Amino acid sequence: MKNLLLLGCSFLLLTTQQACAQRKTNASTQDNRTTIEQNMTSPQWRKDNYIVNRDSAFANPYFALQKLRGGNTRFQQSRSIHPRQDPALIKRLSEGQSPFATIVGCSDSRVSSEILFDQGFGDLFVARTAGQVMAEASYGTIEYAYLMLGTKLVVVLGHTGCGAVAAAVKRPENPPGHIVTLINAIKPAALEAKKKQGETIDNAVRQNVINQVEELRQLESVLSRAYAEGDILIVGAVYNLATGKVEFLDETLTDLPKTSYSKRDITGL
Ligand SMILES: [Zn+2]
Question: What's the short name of a Pfam family annotated to this entry (predicted)?
Answer without folding.
Answer: Pro_CA
